[in-house]
Design a protein that fits this description.
The complex is a heterotrimer of chains A (316), B (300) and C (266). With 300 residues, chain B is an all-alpha fold. Chain B starts with a helix and ends with a helix. Chain C folds into two domains: 147 residues, Rossmann fold (3-Layer(aba) Sandwich); 74 residues, no CATH class. Chain C contains eleven helices and ten strands. In chain C, a hairpin with a 2-residue loop joins strand 1 and strand 2. Chains in contact: A-B, A-C, B-C. Chains A and B meet through helix 1, helix 6, helix 7, helix 8 and helix 10 of A and helix 1, helix 4, helix 5, helix 8 and helix 9 of B.
Chain lengths: 316, 300, 266
C-alpha cells in the first residue's frame, strides 16, 4: 500500500507539472500576442510595450515559465491586469460562494440519487421504476442552464418564493439571505448531477443483483432488499465511488454555468469575466487551480476504492 | 446536464444482459424512436440550407416577443425576429458542431486507444498518462483557455469539445481493443505470423466498431449540450450565427414575458440529445454480437 | 419415514418453452438422491425451483411441499422461512457464490442471526465452530479472511458451512465439485459423506458426473432436455438401465473408468 501511495503521489506531481505547463504554454505559445489582443486595434507601440512589460511577456519564455512554477510554490499566482489585486486573493474571495454551492449540490445529489437509483433497479420492470429511469434520462438530456432558467422563472418570478439570483453584498454576514440565494442554484445543480448519478447507481445495483452471492443470500433465507443491503453496499460502492469523483469535479465545474445563470459572484463567474476581458493571470491561476482539484480528486477516488476493495491492494 | 457530460470520464456501464429476458423481434423500439427524433433535428438543419420561413435578421416591426402564431410558428424574439428560423439555423449549428467535434474526438482518441492496446507496456503507460491529463482539462476549462487567446468562435468550440471528448474515446478504445488482443483467436493469429496491423484490421476493428459507433452517438449528444452551454456562456458560436445556447441566453431576461422563447430551444436540445441517446441504445441492442448471441440463445 | 421436501409434476416454463417437465422427487431424512443430466437438461433449474428461486419470467407449476405444505404459489415471505432453515443449497462456483468483500465468518454467521436470532458474538462463535467442522485449518484466524484469500476447496467448505449452519433437514448441492481440481473434489465428496451421516440431512446431489453421483446416492433421477428419462434405485439404474439415454450414460462412464484404471495400472 505504501509503495502504491508513493507511486501514485509521484504520478500526481508529474500530472500537476504537466497540467501547469499545459496551461502556461496554451496561453503563451499559441499565436497571438496577449498584449495586442488586450488593447484596441491601432494602439501606440509604447502602450503595447508597457502592457508586455506588465505581463512579463517581454522577458524570455523560459524565465516566465520558471517564474510561473516558482509562483505556484509560494502561492503567488501573479496580479490581475485590471484590479491589480493578487490572483490568489481574488480566488479565495470567491470561494465562500462557490464551495458551499458545489459541496451542497454534491451531497444533495448523493442523498437523492442513491435511494432513487436503488429503487429504479429493484422496480425496473414496473411503471414506477421505468418512470424514474426516464426522468433521469431527461435530466441528463436537458442543459443545466435551461433547467436553471426554468426554475428561476417558476419559483422566483411566478411564485416569488425565493430570490431569482444574486448574492448578498455583505456575503455570509447575513446567513439567512446568503442561504436563500443559494437554494435555487443548489437545486438546479442537484437536478443535473443527481440525474447522472441515478443512472450509475441503478446499473451498479443491477450489477450486484445479478451476482451469485445475492442468490446465495436468498437461498439462505434473506429477502431481496435485505440481501442487497447486506452485500450491495460494499460491492456496489466501488464503481459508485469512481463516479463520485467525477461528480464532485462536475459540481465544481458546474458552478461556472450555474453562477452565470443565477448571477452569483463565485469562482466560476470570476473565471468567465476574466476570460472575456482576457485577464490572463486570473484565467491562468483559476484554470490551474480547478485542474489541480480534478487531479487531486482522481487520487482520492483511487485511494478510497482501495480501502473499499482489498482485492485491488495487491495490484499496481 | 451540462457540465458533468462535458467530461464523460466514465461511460455508463452497459445494461447487463438478464438471462431469460424477453425476446425482441424486428426493430428495437429505441432505435426507431431515436431515429425519428434525431431525424427531426436533421431535417430542420437540412431544410435550413435551402429555406427558412424568414431571413435571419428580418424583424417584424411591432411584433416583439410575440407568442406562436400562424405567421411565426415559434413566436418572435425581443428584436421581433422569427424564432422558428433561429431554431432551424440553430439545429444546423448543433449538427455541424456535434459532427465535427465527434470527428475530432475520434481522430485523436482512436489512434491513441489502439496504440495503447497494441503498443506494449510503455505505449500503454504513456497513453494512460495523456488521458489522465486530458481528463483534468474538461471541455469547459479548455474552451476558456482557447477563448482567452483566440476569442470565441465555432472552431474553438469544436476543438475544445473534440479534445474534451477524445479522452473518453481513447479510454474506451483501449479497453475494448485490449480485450480483443487477449482473445485466443488473436493469439492463434499471432502464432501463425500475422502482423499487428493485420490483426488490427482483421480481428480488432471488426469486433469493436459497434462499441465505438455507440460511443460516437453518445459523444454527439454530449457535444450538442456542450455547444449549447458554451454558446450560452458566450464562449461558443458568436453572433450573428444562431445557436440554441445563445437563443436561451438572449431569452433569459424576458422569460416572464415570453416563456416560449426559453422553452423551445431547451426542448430542441433535449430532442436532439434524447434522440441520439436512444439511437445509441438501439444500435447497441442491434449490433452488439454479445447481445445478439444471447438473444439467439434464448430463442433457440 | 416422513417426507420433508417433495415435488410432484414439477414443470418450469419460459414463454412457450418447457424447461423442466413433470419431475417427481421426494426426500425424507437421510435420503440421498442423485439428479444427473448433461448441461442444459434442467437439473439446476429444478434445484432453484425447489427453493422458490427461479429467475424472473419463469413460471412453475405442479406441487412443491415442505413438511406437507404446498408452497408452489406461496409468497416469498413463506419461502424465506424455509430457505437456509429447512432446505439449503450449495452452488457450483464457490468464488462467485460468496460475497468477495465480506469476511467468511460473517457470511457463515448470517443465516444463524437471521433464523436463530443469535447475537453477533454467538453467531460468530458458531461460525468458528462450523469452520472447524468442515475441516478448515486455523478457524479462529480464517473467519476473518476474505474469499479470495483462501483456496477453491476451502471456499466450497465455507459454502457448505453456510448451508448447514442452521441445521437444515434437506441439502441441495448443485454440481458442488465441478469447479474444483480432481484431488480436491475427492476431499469435498468425503466431507459431504461425513457431514450427511453426522447431521442426518437429506441430500439432493446434482451432477453431470455419473460416477460421482453413483458413489453418494441411493436413488438416481436421470434428466435430459427437461424430461425425466429414468428414475430408480442407484443399483438398478446402473445394472439395468431402462432408457436408451441412461444406458448410454452408464456405458460411457464405464469406459472412462476402465480407461483411467488402465492408465493407473500401467
Amino acid at each position: 500500500m505504501l509503495g502504491y501511495l508513493l507511486r501514485r503521489l509521484g504520478w500526481l506531481v508529474g500530472s500537476l507539472f504537466l497540467a501547469g505547463s499545459a496551461v502556461f504554454f496554451l496561453l503563451r505559445v499559441l499565436p497571438g500576442d496577449p498584449a495586442v489582443t488586450l488593447l484596441a486595434v491601432g494602439s501606440p507601440p509604447e502602450q503595447i510595450e508597457a502592457i508586455r512589460h506588465q505581463l512579463g511577456t517581454d522577458r524570455p519564455l523560459l524565465t516566465q515559465y520558471g517564474d510561473w512554477f516558482g509562483g505556484l510554490f509560494t502561492g503567488n499566482l501573479g496580479d490581475s491586469l485590471f484590479t491589480r489585486t493578487p490572483v490568489l486573493e481574488q480566488i479565495v474571495d470567491r470561494l465562500p460562494v462557490t464551495l458551499p454551492l458545489a459541496l451542497s449540490a454534491f451531497v444533495a445529489s448523493i442523498l437523492v440519487a442513491v435511494p432513487v437509483g436503488v429503487f429504479a433497479a429493484l422496480r425496473r420492470r414496473n411503471a414506477a421504476g421505468v418512470a424514474v429511469s426516464g426522468l433521469a434520462q431527461l435530466g441528463i438530456a436537458l442543459p443545466i442552464f435551461w433547467v436553471g432558467i426554468v426554475v428561476v422563472w417558476l419559483v422566483a418570478v411566478q411564485w416569488r418564493w425565493l430570490p431569482p439570483g444574486g448574492f448578498p453584498r455583505n456575503g455570509w454576514q447575513d446567513p439567512g439571505a446568503a442561504v436563500q440565494s443559494l437554494v435555487l442554484p443548489v437545486v438546479t445543480l442537484t437536478i443535473a448531477q443527481a440525474s447522472l448519478l441515478v443512472r450509475y447507481v441503478r446499473s451498479a445495483t443491477l450489477d450486484v443483483l445479478n451476482q451469485e452471492y445475492i442468490r446465495t443470500a436468498r437461498s439462505l433465507g434473506y429477502s431481496l432488499p435485505r440481501a442487497l443491503w447486506r452485500h450491495g453496499l460494499r460491492n456496489g460502492a466501488a464503481p459508485v465511488v469512481n463516479v463520485l469523483g467525477v461528480l464532485l469535479a462536475g459540481s465544481l465545474l458546474g458552478t461556472v454555468v450555474i453562477e452565470s445563470v443565477f448571477a452569483l459572484p463565485g469562482l466560476g463567474s470570476l473565471l468567465l469575466t476574466s476570460v472575456k476581458s482576457r485577464d490572463l493571470p486570473v484565467v491562468q491561476g483559476a484554470v490551474f487551480l480547478m485542474t489541480a482539484t480534478v487531479l487531486l480528486l482522481g487520487l482520492a477516488v483511487d485511494l478510497i476504492q482501495r480501502l473499499i476493495d482489498p482485492r485491488l491492494r495487491g495490484q499496481a | 446536464m451540462t457540465v458533468p457530460l462535458l467530461d464523460p470520464t466514465i461511460a455508463p456501464p452497459e445494461a447487463p444482459v438478464v438471462a431469460g429476458a424477453r425476446v425482441r423481434r424486428g426493430w428495437s423500439p429505441s432505435l426507431v424512436a431515436g431515429a425519428v427524433l434525431l431525424g427531426l433535428i436533421l431535417a430542420l438543419a437540412l431544410v435550413s440550407l435551402f429555406w427558412t420561413p424568414y431571413a435571419l435578421d428580418q424583424a417584424t416591426p411591432g411584433g416583439r416577443l410575440a407568442g406562436p402564431s400562424a405567421d411565426h410558428w415559434a413566436g418572435t424574439d425581443r428584436l421581433g425576429r422569427d424564432q422558428f428560423t433561429q431554431l432551424m439555423l440553430g439545429a444546423r449549428t448543433a449538427v455541424w458542431v456535434g459532427t465535427a467535434a465527434v470527428a475530432v474526438a475520434f481522430a485523436l482518441g482512436l489512434p491513441l486507444g489502439l496504440l495503447a492496446a497494441a503498443g506494449g507496456r510503455i505505449a500503454d503507460d504513456a497513453v494512460i498518462g495523456v488521458v489522465d491529463i486530458l481528463i483534468a482539462f474538461p471541455t469547459l476549462l479548455l474552451a476558456m483557455l482557447l477563448v482567452t487567446v483566440y476569442g470565441a468562435s465555432t472552431l474553438v468550440a469544436i476543438i475544445a469539445i473534440g479534445v474534451g471528448v477524445c479522452a473518453e474515446v481513447a479510454r474506451l478504445t483501449r479497453i475494448s481493443a485490449s480485450r480483443i488482443f487477449t482473445q485466443d483467436y488473436v493469439l492463434a493469429a499471432r502464432t501463425s505470423g500475422t502482423g499487428p496491423i493485420m490483426i488490427l484490421i482483421r480481428h480488432v476493428l471488426p469486433n469493436i466498431w459497434h462499441t465505438l459507433l455507440v460511443q460516437a452517438t453518445l459523444a454527439f449528444g454530449i457535444a450538442v449540450i456542450a455547444e449549447a452551454s458554451l454558446s450560452y456562456l458566450g464562449l461558443g458560436t458568436p453572433p450573428p450565427a444562431p445557436s440554441w445556447g445563445r437563443m436561451l441566453q438572449e431569452a433569459q431576461p424576458t422569460v416572464s414575458v415570453a416563456p416560449w422563447n426559453v422553452l423551445l430551444p431547451g426542448i430542441a436540445v433535449a430532442i436532439a440529445v434524447i434522440g441520439v441517446n436512444l439511437l445509441g441504445d438501439g444500435l447497441r441492442e442491434t449490433l452488439d454480437p454479445q447481445l445478439r448471441r444471447n438473444r439467439r440463445a434464448v430463442k433457440r | 419415514m416422513t417426507t420433508i421436501l417433495a415435488a410432484e409434476h414439477l414443470t418450469v416454463t419460459l414463454d412457450d418453452r418447457t424447461l423442466v417437465k413433470d419431475l417427481d422427487v421426494e426426500l425424507a431424512a437421510r435420503d440421498r438422491v442423485g439428479l444427473i443430466g448433461e448441461s442444459g437438461s434442467g437439473k439446476s433449474l429444478t434445484a432453484l425451483a425447489l427453493l422458490g428461486l427461479l429467475p424472473e419470467g419463469m413460471r412453475v407449476s405442479g406441487r412443491i411441499t415442505v413438511d406437507g405444505r404446498d408452497l408452489i404459489a406461496a409468497p416469498d415471505r413463506d419461502w424465506r422461512r424455509v430457505r437456509g432453515n429447512t432446505v439449503s443449497m450449495v452452488f457450483q462456483e464457490p468464488l462467485t457464490a460468496l460475497d468477495p468483500l465480506m469476511p467468511i465468518g460473517r457470511q457463515i454467521a448470517g443465516p444463524l442471526r437471521l433464523h436463530r436470532g443469535l447475537n453477533r458474538t454467538d453467531a460468530q462463535a458458531q461460525a468458528v465452530h462450523w469452520c472447524e467442522r468442515v475441516g478448515l485449518p486455523d478457524p479462529e484466524r480464517l473467519v476473518r479472511a476474505l474469499p479470495h484469500e483462501i483456496s477453491g476447496g476451502q471456499r466450497q467448505r465455507v459454502a457448505l458451512a453456510m448451508a448447514l449452519a442452521c441445521r437444515p433437514r434437506v441439502l441441495i448441492a448443485d454440481e458442488p465439485t465441478t469447479a474444483l481440481d480432481v484431488t480436491v473434489q475427492a476431499q469435498i465428496l468425503s466431507l459431504f459423506d461425513e457431514l450427511i451421516e453426522e447431521t442426518s440431512v437429506a441430500l439432493l446431489f446434482i451432477s453431470h458426473d455419473l460416477p460421482v453421483v453413483a458413489g453418494l446416492a441411493q436413488r438416481l433421477i436421470v434428466m435430459r432436455d427437461g424430461r425425466v428419462e429414468e428414475s430408480g434405485a442407484t443399483g438398478d439404474v446402473l445394472r439395468r438401465p431402462q432408457s436408451a439415454y441412461a444406458r448410454q450414460l452408464v456405458t460411457s462412464a464405464a469406459q472412462v473408468t476402465r480407461l483411467t484404471v488402465g492408465t493407473v495400472e500401467r
